[in-house]
Write a structure and sequence with these properties.
217 residues, mainly beta, 3% helix, globular
Length: 217
Amino acid sequence: MKLLSFSLLIASATSNNYPVPKDATCLNQNDFEQGTKIIDSPGVYKLCEDISFGPNGPRTGELPGEDAFDPDEAFGTNAFSLGFFTAISIASSDVTIHLNGFTIEQSAGHALMQRFFSVFELASSPFIPSVGPAQFVGSGESFVPASNVNILGPGVIGRSSHHGIHGNDNTNVKIAAIEFRDFEVAAVSLNNVDSLEISDCNVVQNRHDVPIVGLFS
């Protein structure tokens, strides 16, 4: 099955069980304090606590400055030229992520300032080369889409200023037993995907408390 574009807005939910391997790599809040978690080699991962993505933000009680949430020099590729576009970038084949009963979402502050975001990006960049509002794949850089990817619940993919899961040119993607909520565009949007399975998911609601209008961005 090959789809030019796929966006999930509703799905039915039934109980299902996806055992988490004991040797799966733990993902904790600390893994996101500096920015996007980039997965560029095969592996099995699991959330080990709830994740709220808002790296380099202001301290509690402070107002955000112009450079709040901006990537530092460790994220020097063109993909991050408009900020942190995702919490987890999967740029590899053969990756499985278990939500493990936890929630991963964009923080409220980051969602306000970063109006272009997906909780999961199934590629090294949010756009293919020469497409989008910036040149996200620079000279000498490669666009690497994910393939043979499993994103499995139970768990919640929460607040996002755009998508829960986004990708381009992916192959063999399975999304199962996940609750989606508080996205502003779509729960899942995959362009030119080849072989996609979405099962046992529940889309609770899009975000209702958006604090700004589109002109803000």
